[in-house]
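The authors assume throughout that readers already know how a fold can be written as discrete tokens. For illustration, here is how one protein appears when written out as sequence plus structure tokens.
>
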Amino acid sequence: MTHSINKRIVTHHFSNSAHHYDDVTPIQASMAYELAQSSLNYLNHTEIKSIIEIGCGTGNLTRHLVTLFPDATITAIDISQSMIDHAKKKLPQSSNINFMNADAESIAGDNCVLPKSNLIISNAAIQWFSAPLTTIRKYARLLQPGGLLSFSTFGPQTFTELYQSFSYAESELQISHTPRVLNFCSEQDWLDIFSHSEEYDIITDSKIKKQTYSSVREFLLTIKKAGASNARKNSTIYIGKDLFKSMERIYKQNYATPDKTRIIATYHILYGFLNRNESDRISSPGTPQPA
């Protein structure tokens, strides 16, 4: 599965959102905690000397990694220098963290200069890759035997209320349908890419989280502040006034809280844990709940 992603736009969006990203992304923060704790469980006391973090953002996951693996050298990659600058402010001054301002997807090719690592990890970033499945396969080659590649990302049901509301509104107004969502990889997509591999074992997990907002407009503004706006190549999505009003009305009618004071948005979260075999296969310890 490939996406038509304009990386220049992605960089621009996240650079602009860096200073308020943490304020509007509680879901991503909880994902970072859960991913770090689950990764620790899967590693099962494996000595971790080298970590690659794909898409470090403002350092929420990096901070957990520093705590859990204090002796490891961390290479933290992000496409936005502004995100890296904010990460540096919240992390302790440490010679063990090497920040790299780069497109984590493009540097994973045949001439990759990244080190072989015991842990490769990514939180809420790989959905912005043009070829997420292929890129993860490339990163898997950087695992040391017994190492773990773990990631969290979003699944196909993410923001389903928004896209259903747009679809109903388009039908109501008798206008042609416009795709308004990234083609998120499904849990089965991730399982399939390593299903016939004897070198790797992959286990996935998924969960649905519901977030509420005071209005549709607040929800959309939050998405924009998080940097998660449209970044598809050759794609300018125009939303007319009539379409927006119809969508907003349908959303409030169909996807409100029981007391009708707020609207609901779905976050479909996928976790993947890819182990490079040393001997025995890994078994799932489950994904912990945030403290």
